[in-house]
Amino acid sequence: MADYQYDVLVIGAGPGGYVAAIRAAQLGMKTACVEGRATLGGTCLNVGCIPSKALLHGSELFEEAAHGTLAKFGVKTGPVELDLSVMQGEKDTVVKELTGGIEFLFKKNKVDWKKGYATFKDAHTVEVAGQTVTAKHIVIATGSSVTPLPGVPVDNDAGVIVDSTGALALDRVPNHMVVIGGGVIGLELGSVWRRLGAKVTVVEFLDQLLPGMDGEVRKEAAKIFKKQGMDLMLSTKVTGASVDGGKATLTVEPAAGGEASTIEADCVLVAIGRRPNVDGLGLDKIGLALNARGQIETDHDFRTAVDGVWAIGDVIPGPMLAHKAEDEGIAVAENIAGLTGIVNHDVIPGVVYTTPEFAGVGLTEEAAKARGAIKVGKFPMMANSRAKANREPEGFVKVIADAATDRVLGVWAIASVAGTMIAQAAQAMEFGATSEDIAYTCHAHPTHSEAIKEAAMGVQGKPIHM
User: Fold this and answer.
1) What's the mean pLDDT when you consider all of the chain?
2) What is its EC number (predicted)?
């Protein structure tokens, strides 16, 4: 057997990579992790999930204080002002704390951090910053990056046409922000800047927002964001952009074709999706081909077609979500160690962290109907006592169950804390729960989660509070 420097080498220290490295080390394997950023945590912790949530929370507090619900509850304030630099500073502090925490965990678990970017020399050898590193097993966990839009060049430094990274670091509130893409990232960041005072226009190629979510949720999302003041240009495509004097001019036309028009904006956010980070890895040197979408194919154990090379996270098929990558990181390490690591890709929750939040797990109603007969229970948040007390009436919970077996196939929720509520549904589905199981589980009162219980009762046609 060849003598390798490491048992496991993980390429990438994002949510999938750092978790895989820590778990491999916990299982007794000598482990290293390659990361070229100055800090660990990948896109998620540095310029994605975490900083965006800090800005979302900060902007929500500002809106509540400036012209939200505080006065309704008897909390009187004087003139409310925004100090954007302080808000951005708090975001940066959160990022520093969490990325530093991962570095601490690497040291605690004796994971070596190889600083730089890896290129394969063969299936067990990579080069990192001029250093050759060998390992018996190599895990590709390089994540994803922003998908560019032809004709719309991003320049984050200039701050006029930006991607998600640039939109997190703006030093002023735009008068008018145009968001290209009505998906999760565009709506979350667009909602931040709308709350802070920008006029926001969302341009989406499809006829509804939030591709991939339940159809009823998508329709409700459009109503909610319009009510909040966002302008929605659905079924519209952007064909070009120019920048002059700190302003951007976009050329748009109907997605089906038609007469072109222009939109002027102080800031344009390009948020049309993400693509796997595979460039520069030297996959051709190990004979590893990509699929038509530029992804690395694996088996259910996360093995690639090359012996000793594994892959997880955004570089393989499936939703590009941090928690999906984390679960795969644990599973791949356990599989390498000879254990049984499994990820149930049918039960991966997705959340949009706007106000309210949108969340779902499992099949949409449309997908479930395509498979066979179903039963659906739906309960409005306006009938939920906690939501009503908090003056959070928007949204609903929908439970979709198989008509014959009553097994829950999908759960969808719009509520102020839908992202937290959906965990219950995911756990129930992981254990193969029926709607009756949820309906007969005692829920604390008054809580938002009672809406899940009531929706499950609705599958049987017997909700109490509606």
Assistant:
1) 97
2) 1.8.1.4
Alpha-carbon distances, residue 22 vs 39, 114, 179, 198, 320 (angstroms): 16, 14, 37, 42, 21
For domain 350-459, say whether CATH 3.30.70.260 is its number. no
Q: How much is the pLDDT for 411? A: 99
CATH of domain 161-272: 3.50.50.60
In the chain, CATH 3.50.50.60 sits at 6-146+275-336, 161-272
**Counting every residue, how long is the chain?**
466
Q: pLDDT digit string (tens) for 272-312?
A: 999 999 999 999 999 999 999 999 999 999 999 999 999 99
For residues 381-392, average pLDDT: 97
Q: Which of 142, 167, 184, 40 is nearest to 100 (CA)?
A: 40
Closest listed residue to residue 191, CA positions, set 97, 314, 284, 57: 57
Write the CA distances from 349 to 26, 118, 346, 363, integer angstroms.
Answer: 27, 31, 9, 10
The per-residue pLDDT for 375 is 98
Return the percentage of the chain with pLDDT > 70, whole number. Answer: 100
Confidence of residue 424 (pLDDT cuts 50, 70, 90): very high
The pTM is what? 0.97
Q: From the candidates 300, 445, 448, 465, give the one annotated as an active-site residue.
A: 445
Does the structure show a pLDDT above 70 at 1? no
Domain ranges in the chain with CATH number 3.30.390.30? 350-459
Locate 156 and state its tokens: 């984050």
Q: What pLDDT, on a 0 to 100 scale, did the predictor assign at position 68?
A: 79
* Residue whose pair of structure tokens reads 């570089």 in the numeric block: 315
- Residue range 6-146+275-336 in CATH 3.50.50.60: yes
Nearest to 410 by CA among 123, 168, 212: 212
Quick one: tokens of 371? 């498979």
